[in-house]
């Protein structure tokens, strides 16, 4: 059943958007269903179940102060709170954190996607990230969701509130990878200029050349950081690292599909709004990172997923602008097929379902 969930989400959302004007009923039903299903079957569908379970079990035996010594302490403080309220029941622990993870994706859709594109957006984002993020890398999922919302609000308003600055810093203690978002605010003026597209395309070419021909140098440099536990498991020099690299073969498909979409975007770029031009810049920056790490698909995919929700938004641009009217139908069908590939690949990562 799991592999069909994104398709069911798509059909359910499409049907209810046609019948009802209010999106609240649709969204709350989806969130509750996906959170309930995930919490009920978490031991079968989460690749990190054993890791999270050991942490959850330990939370009952330590104080709130001791939780601060855990990696990503803010996440575990919230988990400790739920653990305290519900007596350490696994189902409730997972239900609420999955609920929050899914809610953030729905919130992105509700506030940043045109109504007629919401079904395909949810289909794509859950095809790619339901298992990988909402049911496995839950800390990263919550941090990425919050950071994506903050950045979208920033580029829409042209400024960032003090509360969002607080949230931005806080996400680094939900998942440390959030620090990758921080440079975006410093290079904002650069990537929002009219000349940014050409510059980033050149940067992408350089990144591809670097990744293909100078990867051994980069790999050697990474070895100096092997003392970082989180990085060491993604290095090819370790047995765990080698396994991780083999596990993420979809990296090549994802990069090639993004390259195809980029060609389409280049043709209609002048008709884009300023917000969508900036998102296109982030889309290319993510490709540059992937290209530079092409020798290590585990790191490449992990870095790519940080901007993954923005990627999905950008995938919709050819459906959003009239410039692409002639290809709307065939491109829509292509996205449906791509979503199927995403989900099938995620499904193959799971054992004993």
Automatic annotation (TrEMBL):
InterPro entries: EpsG-like (IPR049458). The chain crosses the membrane at residues 7-39, 59-79, 91-110, 138-155, 167-188, 200-227, 247-266, 278-295, 331-350. The keyword Membrane applies. The keyword Transmembrane helix applies. It holds the Pfam family EpsG. Keywords: Membrane, Transmembrane, Transmembrane helix. The gene is wzy. This is Wzy.
């Amino acid at each position: 059943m799991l592999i069909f969930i994104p398709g069911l989400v798509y059909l359910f959302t499409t049907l209810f958007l046609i019948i009802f004007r209010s999106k609240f009923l649709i969204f709350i039903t989806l969130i509750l269903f996906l959170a309930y299903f995930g919490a009920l079957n978490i031991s079968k569908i989460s690749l990190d179940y054993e890791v999270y379970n050991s942490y959850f079990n330990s939370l009952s035996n330590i104080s709130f102060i001791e939780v601060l010594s855990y990696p990503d302490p803010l996440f575990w403080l919230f988990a400790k709170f739920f653990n305290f309220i519900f007596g350490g029941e696994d189902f409730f622990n997972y239900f609420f954190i999955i609920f929050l993870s899914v809610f953030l994706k729905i919130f992105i859709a509700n506030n940043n996607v045109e109504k007629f594109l919401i079904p395909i957006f949810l289909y794509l984002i859950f095809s790619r990230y339901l298992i990988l993020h909402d049911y496995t890398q839950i800390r990263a999922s919550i941090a990425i969701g919050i950071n994506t919302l903050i950045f979208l609000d920033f580029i829409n308003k042209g400024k960032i509130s003090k509360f969002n600055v607080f949230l931005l810093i806080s996400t680094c203690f939900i998942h440390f990878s959030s620090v990758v978002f921080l440079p975006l605010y410093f290079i904002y003026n650069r990537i929002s200029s009219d000349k940014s597209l050409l510059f980033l395309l050149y940067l992408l070419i350089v990144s591809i050349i670097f990744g293909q021909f100078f990867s051994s140098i980069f790999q050697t440099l990474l070895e100096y950081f092997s003392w970082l536990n989180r990085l060491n498991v993604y290095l090819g020099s370790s047995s765990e690292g080698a396994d991780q690299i083999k596990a993420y073969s979809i990296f090549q498909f994802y990069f090639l599909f993004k390259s195809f979409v980029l060609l389409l975007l280049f043709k209609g770029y002048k008709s884009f709004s300023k917000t969508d031009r900036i998102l296109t810049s982030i889309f290319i920056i993510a490709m540059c990172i992937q290209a530079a790490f092409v020798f290590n698909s585990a790191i490449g995919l992990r870095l790519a997923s940080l901007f993954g929700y923005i990627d999905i938004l950008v995938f919709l641009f050819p459906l959003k602008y009239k410039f692409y009217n002639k290809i709307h139908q065939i491109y829509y069908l292509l996205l449906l097929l791509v979503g199927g590939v995403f989900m099938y690949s995620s499904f193959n990562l799971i054992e004993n379902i």
